[in-house]
Structure formats: C-alpha cells, structure tokens
C-alpha cells in the first residue's frame, strides 16, 4: 500500500481539504472514515484514484486540445448539438489508452484493498473536483459502476468513469453553472461493495426537502440497491424523524409512509458485474423496508454528520446522505454524504406562496415537489431519443427521469412522472431548477394526452394534483423583516399535517387549534369502533376498504393510533417548542356515521349539532373504548416522541361535572393533568361555559373561545340553516358581552384565554374588540395571520389593553354573587 503515490490516496489519508485532489464525493468519504468512525458511523473502506491521475491520462493521450475543440462555443440548450458534442468527447476518452504505470498502481491498490477488507466486489464511483459543493451539487452528473469483481473489469470501469465527465448532463450543468470544462477534474473512488441487493438502501436529508424545515430528518428507503430509488423507478417508503427530541433520547418517528416498492435491484445470478430488476412480492411490499430502530439509527447518524460538517464549514450545513443496508451481515453503512444545495442557498426573509384562484377537475395526483403551481401544455416523452423534440415551457410527462434528461428538464415549466418518490432524480432536479413536480402518479403517461392543457399544483401540501385546464392562480410574497410582533399572541389554526412544516415559517406564537377531525377523515377514514369491532361491520365494500387501508397492521386499532399520532406529531414538531393545542375529536354523530364502518355504531339524531358530541362521548360506555385510542395517540406523541408542547383541549363540555369525568378518563388512559407539563384547556362555546366560568376555571388551565358555536347557541339559531343564516353574526352585542365577560373571569382566575374561531380573521373590528378586552391570544387561519398581526399591533399601540365593557362589569358582579 503506497501512501506516497500522487495517483492513489486511501480513505484514512483523505479529508475535506483534499477536494482538489479527490473531488467532493471522495473527500467526504475520507472525512467520515477518519473522523466519524469513533462515533459509530460505518463507511466501507477504499481508496481514490486522484485528479492528478486523470490529468496524467489526458496528457499521455494529448486529449486537452481535442476536448477543448469539441466543447468550444457549445450551445447546451440545443439538445441535438449537445448530444453530438457529448458523444464525440466520450469517444475520445474511451478510445484512448490507459498509461501502463497508472494501470499497475490501480491494480496493486485493488489487491491491497482485498487483503485489508476481505475479498469481494467493489463499487467504482466518479468524484469530480467541482461536485458535492454547497453551491453546486452536480448530483448524478457522472457515473457509478457497482459489483466490480476483477482487475480488468475495474480498469474498464475507471475508463468509463473518466468518459462520464463528459455526459451530456455534465457538460450542460458545468456550462450553466459557469465552470470551465477543462478545469474540472475527475477522481474515482474504489470502495468495498455493500451487499444491498439482499438488504435495503436509500437516501436521507437532514432537512425537509420541500419546506426547508431544519428540525427533521427525511429518510427514503427501498429494497435492493438504491439506483432504482434515485432513478425514480420505484415509489419508496418515507420516514420523518424529529431532531430536537431525538437528541434528548426520545424515539420521535413522526411519520412513516409506506411506498409501493414494486421492484428491486439485485445482483444478477448469471452475469457478473450486472444488476437485475426483479418484482417485489405483495407481502414484502406491504412491509416497511426498515425497522423503527434502524430508522432512528440513521437519523442519529444524520445528526452526527450534519453537526460535524457544520463545524468544519463554520455554518449550519444540512446534508444529503446515501446509505445502504447489507443483507448478509444486517449492518447499515453510509456510502455518500454531501451538502444539501437547494435550501442552503435560500434566505428566510420572506415567504412566497402560491394559491389557486379557481377549482378544476382533478385528473390525477402524486407526491408534490416544489410548493409551486404551473400551467401549460403536456408533452409526453417516452425515451431519451425523443428529448430533442421537447419544447421550452411545456410540461414534461414521463415514466421517470435520469441524469441524461437534465438538458430537457431545464426547459420544462413542470415535471410529472409515473414513478419515483421525493428523493428521486426528477424531484432533486426540479427543486434545484425551482419548478413544481408531481412524482409517483403511477398513471400520468396513460391518463394525460399530448397537447392537453393542465395545471400542476404542488401548493396544497404533500399531495400534488394535476388539474384539467389552465387554472388561474396567484403568487403571494410576504416580507418578514418588517413585521412587528404585538403583545397579544398570534397563534395558528391548522388541520393538515402535510402543510405544517411550511406554515411554521409564518411568524407565530404556536398553534392555538389543531383539529383532529381532518386527520381522522383524511388519513384514517375509518370509524375507530370499526377497528375495534370489525366483526360488527357487515357491509362487504366497507370490510374490504378497511382491510386495504390497514393491510400492514396485524392489530387494526394500532392503525388509528399510529395515523393520529403521526398527524398530531408532525404539527407539534413544526411549531416546537411553542404551544400546540390539540382539540379532542368533535365530530357530530352524523359525521362519525360517514366514516368507513361508522353507520353501525352511531345513533340517528334529529339535531346532531347539540347532541352526542364532544365531551359527552369520551366517558360514555358507547364510545369510551374508541376514545381510548385517541388518548393512546396523544400519549405516544408526548411520551414516545417527546413533544411535551402538546396541550389538550376539550370541546363542547356542558357542565363542570362533565369536565371532571373527562379529566378522569384522560388520566385513566395516561394523560394526567400536570404530568410532564400537560395542560388541559376547554373550548368556551356553550353559554354555560361563560355563566359557570369561575367553576370551569378551577378545573382547566385555560379557555379558548369557539365563536361559531357560541354565537349560534347565544342567538338560538342553526348556523347551517340558509333561512336564518343572515342572523348569524359574531359581532352581535349579546355574543360580544358573553366574550368580554369570560375574558375578564379568566383573568380574575389567572388562567389563559384565547379565541380560535374564524371571526377575528373575517372581521377586523372584531379582532380589535378582542384586543381591547385584553384577550391573551388569537388563533387564526394561516392566510389571515400576517394582515391581522399588523392590525393588532396598531390597535395595541393606540388603545389600552385593559378596557372593560361597562355591561361586563355588571355581569361579573352578578355572577360573583350567585
């Protein structure tokens, strides 16, 4: 093992400072091998063929002037011209001869690696000197060759790696980024192969790839070798892990999304040095590729790598990591790490959001990438041979993309693929280009037609939708720098967990209302009692649907617990450590009946709005077993995920006696008031809540005014009735007197009080009324927060916060004497 060769450098002699010699990829591998093995991170051993070796190869074959001539004044946006130049450049290298002395050094180093690490195949990875940099990733620009198991195959793979410096995509990328073709050199990493063909592999980011939220690790996983994941030929599993409480020793797997994983890449049993794609059985595909402890192990490694690179760079440095699990020994290895380049270059001085202004027919959906909206004409591309026909501004529709497609992708206004997850090639490039993409649609190439006008929306959370026609939308840019914060807390009403990470960037004081109903109806869809007592569901369609949704669960109630915990956990993590107030389920009986299997378990009521809802359900024998699942989900969020910022709010609680029963049931199922700082709040939405506010204040830690229900019950009207809808108005004097009264009683009892109804968002004067009466917090819809914040600040500045309505003083005096 020659440690002094200018052409060979071993991983234990390489650090990040060696990028000019070994390129970004090899420098990172060496850095991790040297510095992070003592922290438990495993990196397969190997060596690098240096950039000096590449330069020697070019000089020995007099290739520099020839390559310069081919690439001079090249228009990379002219795809046919680019393809012709790329092919000629690669041919120059592939037809050249490897200097004998270089061949001998490579072969001798390969033999040394076999002695040191054991006989077996190696991976041959390209590593350019302008690759994996914070400002330019060059992701997938050069080639990797796997399962190389003899000297001659190794030399041939190295020659092809040199040639891959001039793939069409690499030429195009360099020119777009302003790199001189002849100044970028190529190193090659020779690394012991991880036998992932019988194991698993994937990608992870120490940041959310869509929103740029820095406190999560996003992991993608599939069976077999990871090339199928990166290329987008499969839809992988996805896992979110919350970093702050992971550091504290909790197990905060926020979300586990089961991918289809329809095929996997394995070692070809007949042809050496080749991989074969084989189908994954339905039973195997229904299982997650990683166990929970493996997910947490990878997330811990992501924290270690991110922290190390941030220290080395002198700034926060999110990372993009490739990992592989060896199916023979069961161990996980890191095979690549590089700076994340999309969000690393963004500032958080403003928020740009896209919003559809009209509705349309949804043609299909998939995973959203980019949080933007674009419209245009569909152009379906079936193979790389058709790329030269792609027209700038069209919407690229294809089965999947790979790095060779990048010249055409740069011309697209949006990208839609049949296959792939949010870490596939199409997703990575779309983010870097700043265009929306919907990946993993399954049927886009079959459903959409060439020339069809569509709108691609990635602005509605995790689900990306393709709408028929050119829909109107607007782009809203909100500056944060000049936003002044009022003394009154401005919190957020939120229901969709998939939007939580993005919405958390809007200046806020936490989430004042998290509605469980959205999570239950959108992600669970099944009545909880139907999961506890499936034998009572007689409808065959519903039974099949329940089985389909819960196919990966042996214990069906666990499906409800996991999905609800996942949704609440994602929102709680987004706003951590600020308060997140979760309202317990408040479906009416008719709404519960609409859930799958629900009609069997629900009573038929004449007026469900004031019937079997809210607090009355939780302790009732007819529903308590279902409520126990709800409690288990909240308990998991607080105790297993460590999200103690979650507070619990009880809706539609009619009497203090009922409040005590609910608190007893919560404690019975592990949610004891004051344990680990657990606070319990009450929705103030029934007139009795105001009249008996002194009594309720002895039981709860705070109130949150539900102005919708309070208004209809104070005015004695059904807010859903079209006939009397004109009478529904939160600004009615009777409603305002009730609200001002309960604010003062809450303050007299030293408990918090806020409002989570929509009235402050809808009526500026109502928000001002609340502030004048000294309300502690307003919880608003996300789109209303910024404008209301400015208005509240102005109100505080011009008015006293201690104003009390004269009528309120009389009511308080009267109530105190009762």
Describe the model.
- By secondary structure, the chain is of the alpha/beta class.
- It folds into 4 domains: about 10-195, Dna Ligase, domain 1 (2-Layer Sandwich); about 195-345, ATP-grasp fold, B domain (D-amino Acid Aminotransferase, Chain A, domain 1, 2-Layer Sandwich); about 350-480, Phosphohistidine domain (Glucose Oxidase, domain 1), CATH 3.50.30.10; about 490-815, TIM Barrel (Alpha-Beta Barrel), CATH 3.20.20.60.
- Helices cover about 40% and strands about 20% of the residues.
- The protein is built from 31 helices and 30 strands.
- An 8-stranded parallel barrel has the order 23-24-25-26-27-28-29-30, surrounded by 6 helices. Strands 15-19-18-17-16-20-21 form a 7-stranded mixed β-barrel. Strands 9-8-7-6-12-13 form a 6-stranded antiparallel sheet.
- Helix 15 (about 500-505) links the parallel strand 23 and strand 24 (about 510-515).
- Helix 4 packs antiparallel against helix 6 (about 150-165), helix 19 (about 555-575) crosses helix 22 (about 625-640) and helix 27 packs across helix 31 (about 805-815).
- The radius of gyration is 30 Å and the shape is elongated.
- Mean pLDDT is about 90; it is low at about 130-140 and about 800-818.
